[in-house]
Amino acid sequence: MAADVRRSGSERVVRWSIAFALLGSAVLVDPAADAAFDAPQRLAAALGACVGAIALLWSRVDATQPWSRSARIAAGAAAALGVWLCVATLASDAPDAAWHGLRGMLPFALLLPLGASSALDGVGGVRLFGVAVVAVGLNIVVSLLQAGGWTLPLPVSHLGGRLPGGALLGNEGYVALASALLGAAAAAVALNTRSVRLRHLALTMLLVCCAGIAVNRQATSAMALGAALLVLGALRLRARRLAGAAALAVLLGATMAAVPALRAPTFGAVADVATYQRLTTDRLGAWAAALEMARMHPLTGVGPGRFAAQAQTHRFAAEIRLGTRLPPPSTATGFAHAHQDYLQLAAEAGWPALALALLAFAAVWAPLLRLAQSPGAVEPLLLLAVLSAGAVAALAWFPLQIPCTAVLLLLACGRAWRLVARGPQAAAATRDAAPHASIALRVVATGLVLALLWPQSGRYRAEWQIAAASAQLEAVLRGRERGSAANAAVAEAERLARAAAAATDDNRAALLLGIALILQQRGDDASRVLERAIARGERAELTLNLGRARTVLGDSAGADAAYLRTAWASPLALATLPATMRADLSARVARLESQLRAGRLQAPPPLR
User: Fold this and answer.
1) Which of 80, 173, 186, 275 supports an S-S bond with 202, CB 3.0-4.6 Å?
2) Is 194 helix (H, G, I), strand (E, B) or coil?
3) What is the pLDDT of residue 506?
């Protein structure tokens, strides 16, 4: 009896933790943080995952059934992937930064065992699905209202994107991705439920999700939902091979696009680079940078979480090698993500890591396809639809980098693994964890999980400091603070930026510190700060302000070199320079582009 009470108590904690992660990753907003949407949502997901994992560690379980062969393959591949990520971290040129990135990934990895736990069996799983519906549905409704002219009553607008429908996720693309996942689940329920009322409710949800994708004009999300519907349709028509053939076609297409020897006679023969840039909304630069990283570091990549820091220099290298320009979108100065989760994994941890991830996914997806054919098998069908939509979305977006969609997909992966390991009926009838784990082992594991949470507080405090420093500098640059008040504001911004830089290696803090030092005419100090930041990870904003720091020092040649490299990286970064300087830099970039197309340019403009 005591064991049953402890087990049910731990399961309740796991369920509440998952519910917190689902809701927090979708609705939390902190206007006081610099990343007002991403930072609180990422923290909520990490907190929920870690608390749930600790509860799972201390649960009492019954004897478990042996896993199926496919489940053993998936678990082995996932474990090997974890080991390989550690190897990639140690092999990185910047192991400290790579360790920081890996430590940020690990709390999300804990969602896999949470999804595979018995806490999602029966009514508990249905209730958590309802929480996910509420979390995503709320964002869709807010996005639709924003499309009609309503604005959020918050001192933040949106994280990015082209349209105002970012809702509580901060970007209309994120809302559309979540809509695709929820729409896939709704379609699965509508196709396989005997309840007329539930079918009508699911169809209504599907229509709302389609509206969320349509108003935000997101082709990738539409294709992801379409792929899920194709899989569902194939199963409905008893044409399971059609779903497998579609998956194989997607894999072959992605391979042909990634391998140069295959790309030239296929995609290259159909259209030119400019056409593909328009079709992919300027994603080619991100993909080329990721491929360049994987080409230069095929076994271990550049290190977990290092794509953003390495994207600009590797994009430059890819442009020189390919003889064509691959600039970022006109609304951005660079790429923070590869806009393809598969390529980003290969870039950060090497091709072996990608192979292991694909093996683990295939070992779950293929048997799940068979389970979904069983009459009345709503849950396998729902999971199959969601995972299929996520797999297609990851070809042109980054659902595993977005807290909300990452939580949904990782929980779905864990739950799908449980069904594959034991079958739907057996999974609901057994309880699982480590029945023979000693107290000492559980204490050690709990300490490791808590160690993942500990740095989160310092990083989150840095978000507040970065936001406050940015506000101080903006007040000075816009003329709202003058004289002694302006001097005090700049000094306070310097203090906040230094504190943030000490807590995180995020270059946003270094950029603000450099600007504060430039405003104080401390060009030498600013140059050192910015050069160190550029060595960690080059960004157009950093090289632009390095040019300003060199101007303060009277180094006109060095400043000109920094400005030209900035112009080569992104014309948008030059918006704050005088018009005559922008025109001159644009003309010089045009001449360099002519040399690049002619094959005469051997390197991008240097910083010195």
Assistant:
1) 186
2) coil
3) 84
Which pLDDT tens digit goes with each residue over 505-556?
788 999 999 999 999 999 999 999 999 999 999 999 999 999 999 999 999 9
Rounded distance between C-alpha atoms, residue 419 and residue 558, angstroms: 61
CA angle 360, 420, 53 (to 5 degrees): 70
- Would you mind telling me the total number of residues written for the chain in this entry? 608
- Of residues 132, 241, 108, the one with CA closest to residue 185: 132
Short-list 392, 423, 399, 412, CA closest to 229: 392
Please provide residue 241's backbone torsions phi and psi, each rounded to the nearest 5 degrees: -65, -25
What span, in angstroms and rounded, lies between the C-alpha atoms of 166 and 148?
13
CA nearest to 202, candidates 224, 186, 214: 186
Average pLDDT taken over every residue of the chain: 89
CA–CA distances in Å: residue 548 to residues 294, 528, 569, 583: 34, 13, 17, 18
Position 239 scores a pLDDT of: 59
- Comparing CA positions, the residue from 280, 348, 341 lying closest to residue 314 is 348
Q: Which helix (H) or strand (E) holds 354?
A: helix 351-371
Q: Which of 495, 286, 358, 430 is nearest to 81 (CA)?
A: 358
The one-letter amino acid at 180: A
Q: For residue 60, give the nearest of 565, 431, 416, 345 by alpha carbon.
A: 431
Contact between 419 and 367 (Cβ < 8 Å):
no
* pLDDT score at 346: 97
Helix (H) or strand (E) holding 10: helix 2-27
Within 10 angstroms of residue 376's Cβ, the number of other Cβ atoms is 10
Percent of the chain with pLDDT over 90: 71
Within 13 A of 110's CA, how many CA atoms are on the CB side? 29
For 551, residues 6+ apart whose C-beta sits below 8 A from its C-beta are 523, 559
**Who's near 33: CB < 8 A, 6+ residues apart?**
39, 40, 460, 463, 464, 467
Counting other chains too, the contacts that 230-239 makes at CB distance below 8 Å and 24 or more residues apart are 231/369, 231/384, 231/385, 231/388, 232/184, 232/187, 232/188, 232/191, 232/381, 232/384, 232/385, 235/369, 235/372, 235/373, 235/381, 235/384, 236/191, 238/373
- In DSSP notation, 578-603 reads -HHHHHHHHHHHHHHHHHHHTT---S
Q: Are 127 and 15 in contact (CB under 8 A)?
A: yes
Least Cα distance to 143 among 118, 119, 110, 169 occurs for 169
The span from the CA of 125 to the CA of 121, in Å, is 5
CA 203 to chain CA centroid, nearest Å: 29
The tokens for 467 are 């936001």
Q: Where are the alpha helices (DSSP H) in 423-519?
A: 424-429, 439-477, 483-503, 507-519
For 182, what's the count of Cα atoms within 13 Å in the CB-facing half-sphere? 35
- 229-247 in b/e burial notation, b at 16+ Cβ within 10 A? bebbebbeeeeeeebeebb
Q: What angle do CA 442, 418, 371 make, to 5 degrees?
A: 175
Handedness of CA 192, 195, 198, 204 (dihedral sign): positive
